[in-house]
Amino acid sequence: MQAFIEQPRNIPFFLRLGIWASEKVTGRRMLPARLLAWYPRAAFGSGALEALVAHHDRKLDERILKLVRMSASFAAACPFCIDMNSYEPTGHMHAALVIDAQEVLALRGQVDLDQVSSFSTRERLAIRYARLISQTPLKFTPDFIEQIRANFDEREMVILASTAAQVNYWARLIQALGIPPAGFGEDS
Questions:
Q1: Domains and CATH numbers, the chain
Q2: pTM, to two decimals
Q3: Fewer CB near the terminus (10 Å): N or C of the chain?
């Protein structure tokens, strides 16, 4: 499976450095970064967005942010995003964050979220928030917002919202360019 377009033959040096760094971190050929080289401004903006995304912050640990990224990926139905956000750079499916098979089924919507006892109240709310952020049109009920505000402070709400929005940005861009999964789930 190939993307809708080929990468440019001549990628500017400064973008090659960024591509090299992203591929070193991920251990995979990063076709999104390569295709963005067609328009360097989009490459820089996308790179800045990716570099500044939260992976942990005070009370929001890596696990809750991983759950948000995975939820948004499934909600956006983006195969590349699901592949990238479900696996660690080492090729191990969310092993370091101990997200078990039942939790993954719940993130996919195949099991009721409330039936998975291993999710904390905050994790359930963050997952629901990511799903709502990933839907069109956006619909936030006053009751749900009240629950979010009771469980997360303002800073945490911004981090959760921006994390889900970041996944949605990549999902739309990647799908619009026809970029296939990078194979994060394959053995390294």
A1: 13-52 (no CATH), 62-176 (1.20.1290.10)
A2: 0.90
A3: N
